[in-house]
Write a structure and sequence with these properties.
Elements: H1 9-20, H2 26-46, H3 63-66, H4 71-83, H5 89-109, H6 136-146, H7 154-167, H8 171-175, E1 182-183, E2 188-192, E3 198-202, H9 205-215, H10 246-259, H11 269-284, H12 288-295, H13 300-303, H14 311-319
Antiparallel strand pairs: 1-2, 2-3
Helix pairs in contact: 1-2, 2-5, 6-7, 7-9, 7-11
Length: 329
């Protein structure tokens, strides 16, 4: 829950606007609140309205104070994030995006500001890095670990791991799956992705088999909790018979990675999404546009990170050159 009583009214109005008009997810709005609260606290310290070592009340930062903020002040905050907070470029880019949307709202929608100080705010240049992912062999190892019958929840954990590795879904999408979202006849399901956007994910034989196997082992309906998360509708349940949480799924995957002898410092739930996309591209010859649709990416440039090739493929390409066996060079 967002502590709205600790926010100035214009911030709460922006958060409401983000949910109702921009159609942002509750998680995104929470991030907005966190980022902008910290931004306003920094501004209060910079304007000598508060001290760094005291609890700062951002409700005292008025609309009049907002009008004092300049691009230079925003740059100072971004510099503070980089130097004092040691924030990565990707983190700073996200916070900059939030600040841009916030000031656009204040100047164009609410008309609180005549001048938008963030209008010319630039995003830091991001390094393009190859995504970390599991090889095909390591993916099979992980599935073997997940399906080990020594684990009393092996059917659930195997189904979770199978969906991650076959469908490339996000953690929040998997946790949010309801049984009614699955069309068992058509072998497909709907998930709610970023920005509350609904998309269809098609399920292969491995996914359908794992889901069906798990469903038959689920607790009886009358033992499942009825709560605000609609646990009674959820596909995946915790041992407390509630909708499984993000943290529990992360813990499950981490334990599986450890048991499979894989590097948990470099691999995580999100890397399974990278793995699914990479395997489909490398082994399935999936079209980049189809992959974009499957992963729910808004921009094709985001999907293009999966078009990387392995060193073995590069070596194979060189070896396949018709001149590779020539002795007269």
């Amino acid at each position: 829950m967002i502590p709205k009583e600790k926010n100035p009214e214009y911030l709460n109005s922006f958060l409401d606007y983000s949910i109702t008009i921009l159609n942002k997810s509750p998680n995104s709005v929470k991030e907005y609140n966190y980022d902008l609260s910290n931004f306003l606290k920094y501004m209060m310290i910079r304007f000598k309205m508060a001290k760094e070592d005291e609890e700062i009340d951002i409700t005292k930062f008025t609309e009049k104070d907002l009008k004092k903020i300049t691009l230079e002040d925003i740059h100072a905050y971004i510099s503070h994030l980089a130097i004092n907070e040691r924030s990565k470029a990707t983190t700073r880019a996200r916070k900059i995006s939030t600040i841009r949307i916030f000031f656009k709202y204040l100047s164009q929608k609410e008309k609180i500001l005549e001048v938008n100080p963030a209008q010319n705010l630039e995003t830091p240049k991001l390094e393009k890095r190859m995504p970390k992912y599991l090889s095909l062999e390591d993916s099979k190892k992980l599935l073997d670990v997940a399906g080990n019958e020594d684990n009393r929840n092996h059917k659930r954990d195997y189904a979770i791991t199978t969906l991650f590795l076959n469908c490339g879904m996000r953690l929040s999408e998997l946790v949010g799956i309801n049984i009614d979202d699955i069309d068992f006849e058509e072998c497909k399901m709907t998930v709610i992705g970023k920005g509350n956007k609904e998309r269809t994910i098609y399920l292969n034989k491995a996914c359908m088999a794992a889901i069906n196997d798990y469903i038959y082992s689920r607790p009886p309906k009358n033992t499942i909790k009825h709560d605000s998360k609609h646990s009674e509708k959820a596909l995946f349940l915790s041992e407390q018979k509630k909708r499984i949480s993000n943290r529990t799924v992360q813990f499950i995957i981490q334990k599986e990675l450890e048991k499979a002898g894989l590097d948990t410092s470099k691999l995580s739930v999100h890397k399974l999404r990278h793995t699914a996309a990479t395997l489909m591209y490398q082994y399935g010859g999936v079209d980049i546009r189809a992959l974009q649709e499957l992963l729910g990416h808004q921009s094709i440039s985001t999907t293009e990170i999966y078009t990387h090739v392995s060193n073995d493929q590069v070596r194979q390409a060189v070896e396949s050159n018709p001149l590779s066996d020539s002795k007269n060079l």
